[in-house]
Amino acid sequence: MASLLDHLDALHEYQDVFLAAIPDAEPATPVPWCGDWTVADLVIHLARVHHWAAGQARRVPAEPLGDGPFDHALLYARCAAELRATLKELDPDAWAWTLLDDGNPPGGPVGTVRFWHRRQMLETLVHAWDLLGATGLDFDPGPSAWLDCLDEVVVIMHPRQVRLLRIEPPRIRVRFDPDEGASLRLLGTPGDAPEVRIGGPARSLALLAWGRTTPDDPTITIAGDRSLLDDLLASGLTP
Description:
Elements: H1 4-21, H2 39-58, H3 72-89, H4 113-134, H5 143-163, E1 173-178, E2 184-185, E3 195-200, H6 202-209, E4 221-223, H7 226-235
Parallel strand pairs: 1-3
Antiparallel strand pairs: 1-2, 3-4
Helix pairs in contact: 1-3, 1-4, 2-3, 2-4, 4-5, 5-6
């Protein structure tokens, strides 16, 4: 995993990449892998998420941003700056409202501000990839960032979806085997369930876990029952 300082530095770097791409992206351009979203929808979404996360870190409800119309670059710059200032100001070990706590019984995990350093860095990574991809460009921050992205899906995002009853627990044992790191397994599967192993570059596996590519990606190898994997991916591993 990246260090705390790395997460904050990477968050700032990815925010800058995202902001710099906004003026060159036509707002009505479709964003592949994001349903019917356009570039405008994506920019507003990430701005709202930054604003909301700043409130979560402070443990206060975020004030509504309104329905627009917005100057997209200005809106994003303002919300990105708000998040940066919030995370810089707060003690990383202070209690915060996080995705670790919702749906858990009292006495379960207690989230801290530190959680939002990583969560917002990875949110921005995925959406910077979305935004640049919509304009025919690429965003690749390197294997360490993609490994961190994949780890978050396996350890936090997918278990949360199961915990909140949004999806059923996996009926197959899924093992991700990234070329650049240790294997990762989805949680909550019976030990006698059939296993499917997914190999390839960390980037490809992270994008698969986030629904940005498919098992047909030529850089990905599948060992096990492909139809069972397709069923699992159809339900979604992330929000």
